[in-house]
Design brief:
By secondary structure, the protein is an all-alpha fold. Helices cover 63% and strands 0% of the residues.
């Protein structure tokens, strides 16, 4: 049985006053928010370790090698925008 279900049971059976149950439920909600924030922080730290780990080092080495080689790594530049020659309103040139 969950904590909140137990509070509800104790309150409905008269073993716990509704005001105390309300305070306990609010505290449980705050504890859940804190726990969620801590779990999120742990996940962010784990992702940062992965991001700055061996894969990041390999990527940095590849970038440095490309820059040291004058950029001649077999890569092509990004294509430019398509430009329209002639009138821009759809008319045929005269």
């Amino acid at each position: 049985m969950s904590y909140l279900e137990e509070l509800a049971h104790l309150t409905t059976t008269g073993q716990l006053s509704p005001s105390l149950a309300s305070v306990a439920a609010a505290c449980a909600g705050r504890a859940a928010v804190i726990h969620s924030a801590q779990a999120t922080e742990a996940l962010i730290e784990a992702l940062a370790k992965v991001e700055h780990g061996p894969a990041a080092v390999i990527l940095l080495q590849q970038l440095q090698a490309g820059l040291a080689g004058g950029g001649a790594t077999g890569r092509r530049p990004l294509p430019g925008r398509a430009t329209q020659i002639g009138p821009g309103n759809g008319e045929q040139p005269a």
